[in-house]
């Protein structure tokens, strides 16, 4: 049996190490790369052309779903999403026959995924079939996953808790374990929270990720200036200017800058 070439993408190092430890016990598996975010995953997939990518559903800068959106069909490996329990994701994947692994991952279940990958790779047109199913799963997930979004962000200041209206938030910028929140009136607040966690609580058609460490309120963007290398400089109504990464510039262009 030929070896399955596998890449791993998860923003948490212990999770990657755990997966690698299990996969290293499988004689028919070769690990060809690992990524700690979606942007890295895309580059590694393009570079190493793995047979199978194990993608964490929630990663900074680009989620596992974004990776699928941004890869062309000709670049798409087999994909198994790795996720904590998410009923909407599971429903979307099951409806479209897309493989997924629930955390904590069990060795026997991962073995099933590897075996399933072997079987699918035997079909000459597997890439087109799998890519079609994956794209459909992404759309299904987007349609059925309508979480409750927050309207205010609670911020502790000394002995008080300030409720910052989300509609007044211009940007949220990560600094290590802290998030710096800036409002349209240039009031600044700091909270201890992960950017990807607060991003999941904000309406995605109103807040856009500009880079691995920055979110901006689309309704409070005053102008977007093209920069060399296909990136943008995003100017906000409070005078802030935040550069967008190459990957997020591509997402911004495809989602919001086309008529």
Which terms summarize this structure?
5-stranded antiparallel sheet, 34% helix, alpha/beta, OB fold (Dihydrolipoamide Acetyltransferase, E2P), 32% strand, single chain, 259 residues, Rossmann fold
Model description:
The radius of gyration is 20 Å and the shape is globular. The chain folds into 2 domains: 141 residues, Rossmann fold (3-Layer(aba) Sandwich); 105 residues, LytTr DNA-binding domain (OB fold (Dihydrolipoamide Acetyltransferase, E2P), Beta Barrel), CATH 2.40.50.1020. Helix 2 crosses helix 3. The protein is built from 8 helices and 15 strands. The longest helix is centred in the middle third of the chain and has 19 residues. Helices cover 34% and strands 32% of the residues. The mean pLDDT is 91. It is an alpha/beta fold. Strand 9 and strand 10 form a beta hairpin. The strands form 4 sheets. Strands 2-1-3-4-5 form a 5-stranded parallel sheet, with helices on both faces. Strands 10-9-8-12-11 form a 5-stranded antiparallel sheet.
Question: What is the compact description of this entry?
Answer:
The chain has helices at 13-23, 38-48, 64-70, 87-95, 107-121, 126-144, 195-199, 246-256; strands at residues 4-9, 29-35, 52-56, 78-83, 99-102, 152-157, 160-165, 169-175, 178-183, 188-192, 207-211, 214-217, 221-227, 231-236, 241-243. By secondary structure, the chain is of the alpha/beta class.
């Amino acid at each position: 049996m030929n070896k399955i070439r596998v890449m791993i993408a998860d923003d948490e190092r212990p999770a990657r190490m755990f997966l690698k430890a299990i996969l290293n016990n499988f004689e028919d598996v070769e690990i060809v790369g690992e990524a700690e975010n979606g942007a890295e995953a895309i580059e590694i997939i393009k570079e190493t052309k793995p047979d199978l990518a194990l993608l964490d559903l929630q990663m900074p800068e680009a989620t596992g779903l974004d990776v699928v959106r941004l890869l062309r069909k000709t670049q798409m490996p087999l994909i198994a999403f790795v996720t904590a329990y998410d009923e909407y994701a599971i429903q979307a994947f099951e409806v479209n026959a897309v493989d997924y692994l629930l955390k904590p991952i069990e060795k026997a279940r991962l073995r099933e995924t590897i075996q399933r990958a072997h079987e699918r790779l035997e079909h000459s047109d597997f890439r087109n079939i799998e890519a079609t199913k994956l794209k459909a799963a992404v759309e299904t997930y987007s349609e059925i996953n309508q979480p409750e979004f927050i309207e205010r962000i609670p911020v502790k200041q000394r002995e008080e808790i300030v409720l910052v209206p989300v509609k007044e938030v211009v940007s949220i910028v990560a600094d290590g374990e802290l998030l710096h929140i800036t409002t349209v009136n240039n009031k600044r607040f700091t909270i201890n929270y992960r950017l990807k966690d607060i991003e999941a609580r904000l309406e995605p058609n109103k807040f856009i990720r500009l880079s691995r460490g920055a979110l901006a309120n689309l309704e409070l963007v005053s102008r977007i200036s093209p920069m060399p290398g296909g990136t943008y400089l995003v100017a906000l109504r409070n005078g802030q200017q935040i550069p967008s990464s190459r990957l997020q510039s591509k997402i911004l262009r495809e989602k919001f800058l086309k008529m």
